[in-house]
Design brief:
alpha+beta, Arc Repressor Mutant, subunit A, 2 domains, 3-stranded antiparallel beta sheet, two-stranded antiparallel sheet
Length: 167
């Protein structure tokens, strides 16, 4: 049990948490300190308590946490990119496309590749709209997208930087 600055005890074994979750600093995009801070923050421990536990300042903990979260987001983006590259079905959806036309584009490409998308047309439109963020407004695709379908039917949506005639 670690005693922290406000006298409240925190019963956390950071080494055990990292071990249980399989953290390997040689294989991770996170430093050990970043992993420690994230592990503690995910357990709702305040930055000031973490600072006391780790013998540093709250500002340093905040900085380490921000860097760690950026690294995690970059790792997620890298995995999504790699999955999109490997997807046997890749459909470019150009800006100006009606969202209601996207399922047919995807299903036609899936039929051609012998892959089954695991979503109904309404589910597919919602998935594309949700993943696209501000690239889809109402029924209009405002920014080019790449919709990939993996061999197991999972749909992945990525923003595309396909050049348009206006570029």
């Amino acid at each position: 049990m670690d005693e922290v600055d406000d006298g409240e005890a925190v019963d956390v074994d950071v080494d055990a948490i990292l071990s249980e979750t399989g953290f390997d600093p040689e294989e991770s995009v996170l430093t050990r300190r970043q992993a420690e801070v994230l592990a503690l923050r995910e357990r709702d421990i305040r930055q000031s308590k973490i600072a006391s536990m780790l013998g540093t300042s709250r500002a340093n903990v905040s900085s380490v946490e921000s860097s760690a979260r950026r690294n995690v987001e970059k790792a997620r983006e890298t995995v999504a990119f790699a999955e999109a590259l490997a997807a046997p079905v890749q459909v470019s959806v150009e800006a100006g496309t009606d969202l209601y036309d996207v399922p047919k584009l995807v299903y036609d490409a899936c039929d051609e590749a012998g892959v089954k998308a695991n979503r109904t047309a309404p589910e597919l439109m919602k998935a594309v709209s949700d993943a696209a963020g501000d690239a889809v407004q109402g029924r209009e695709v405002r920014k080019s997208l790449l919709v990939g379908v993996t061999t197991n039917g999972r749909v992945e949506v990525r923003h595309s930087s396909v050049a348009t005639a206006d570029d």
